[in-house]
Amino acid sequence: MMKFIKPLALGILASQMISIAFASPAQVTTAQKIVDLTHLESDFNNNLKDLQSMYLNQAVTLVKQHTGHQTLTAQDNQAIERIIQVYNKNTTTISKSLDIKKIGTDIYLKNYSEEELKAYQKFLETPEGASIVQKIPMFSVVFNQEVAKYTQAINVQNSISQKTNTEVGQILATLPK
């Protein structure tokens, strides 16, 4: 029995190495098709829209830290709106400078063979593949929420934020002012 396993394993390994060695480089048109089928550009734009709640939270935190107010005044709210406008302006400037389709295409070209991309394309063109691609953003949102929830629970349970702040404070205290 062992006589057959070793040659079989070597044969499988050799065939894998040969298929990798002779894999065709990915073609630009195939990589671009994958970028289109995965809706990479629209997902990126949707992610930018999702930044709004983060910007609001960050602006509120900054204003509260700066003013010491726990209850926001009308002036505080105006400042928050202006801060959000700055964030949005800068995000728009950066995002307009990005060619998301080219970035995605280049990543596929660098990391995949033509055969891999063709297989992926074939899958994405099925109803199941299209359905999965549509569900990936929701999966990511839910996954990130769950990770944040568990991270917060672990943080509270183990007083990690307090420990971190204490340790960082001790390190900073050793520095001259």
What can you tell me about this protein's structure?
- By secondary structure, the protein is mostly helical.
- It has 2 domains: 25-125, no CATH class; 129-159.
- 85% of the residues lie in helices and 0% in strands.
- The protein contains 8 helices and no strands.
- Helix 2 runs parallel beside helix 6 and helix 3 runs antiparallel to helix 4.
- It starts with a helix and ends with a helix.
- 7% of the residues are buried.
- Residues 1-23 form the signal peptide.
Main β-sheet description: none
Helix and strand content put the structural class at mainly alpha
Rg for CA atoms:
25 Å
Strand content: under 5%
Provide mean pLDDT, rounded. 85
**Number of domain modules:** 2
Shape: extended
Distance between the termini: 74 Å
Low-confidence stretches: none
Helix run count? 8
Helical amount: over 70%
SSE succession: HHHHHHHH
- Compute the number of strand runs: 0
Oligomer: single chain
Domain DUF2059: 105-154
Pfam family, one: DUF2059
InterPro entries: DUF2059
Keywords: Signal
Overview in brief:
Residues 105-154 form the DUF2059 domain. The protein has 177 residues and is mainly α.
